[in-house]
Specification:
The protein contains 5 helices and no strands. It is an all-alpha fold and 135 residues long. The chain has one domain. Helix 1 crosses helix 2, helix 1 packs antiparallel against helix 5 and helix 4 runs antiparallel to helix 5. The two termini are 34 Å apart. Keywords: Membrane, Transmembrane, Transmembrane helix.
Length: 135
Amino acid sequence: MTHQTLAAWASVAARPPSFFGRFRSVPSALFANAVVALYVATTLLGGIIYLYFRVDVRPELERAGHWHVLGFFDLKEHFAAIGLALLPAYWVCWRRPLDDEPAQTRTALTSILAFIVWWGFLSGHVANNIMGFGS
């Protein structure tokens, strides 16, 4: 997701010797199917382990008064659902990108999904590790 986002944001004039030119040298459309499949698989697996979080971890965080962490984690859940709803539009935009069509929609959808993925990654790790921070 990060690679495709950097490639989408890179200037068309970026040449392969440059940092962003290397990202653009790989066809970004090739990532679309993998991104969709991995996003759905990750969300499903996250839903399966969510029960453990809800029963064992969340009450401990509530007792410890880590309300801000729980708020970030709740945002993670909402963002993940929004990402699932965006996947069909994302896939349609990337399945056959045409050279003459504007790339703003692809770039925007890719950026939103990248934000959601990174938010989920970071907030999940903080929620997982928070009881070790100063406790």
